[in-house]
Model the fold of this input.
Amino acid sequence: MQQLKPTIRLHIWLENEEGIVFGSGRAQLMLNIERYGSLKKAAEAMKMSYRAAWGKIKQTETILGHKLIRKMGSNRKGYELTAFGTSITRNFLYWFDEVEKKALKEAESIFPWLTNSYKNTSDIRPDCVDTVCPWPEKSIADKKRPNVPGNAPE
Done:
């Protein structure tokens, strides 16, 4: 009989009365914008429409009162993350990793079997439906302890 070793899957996000502030989907969208330099390509990688991606970015910008992305030169040059966008993405990914570590440790003390981290079982990011969306090798996701949320300069 094969040994049971389930994978922990977490879906956590921040919200308020105005809606979702930030979550795994928005973090993946931001990482894809960083990766591709294009909101259109970032959305396509997640099998999402440009309009839906734009709406999610705008909703979070409105709630937080800060820009997450900015145009690079002309319209044809694409988008890049603002310092605030980089900070909030890094902070969320740090928080997600810390929550997952605590969940794994707690699972070890509760269940009679070992559990896997989602990141250790696949190269696919949470909420990334396109199997070509690996965890970035050198990006904002690799930074250590983040800046204090909301204090990154624009």
Remarks:
- The CA atoms of residues 44 and 103 lie 32 Å apart.
- The longest helix spans residues 83-110.
- Strands lie at 13-16, 19-23, 69-71, 79-81.
- The first strand starts at residue 13 and ends at 16.
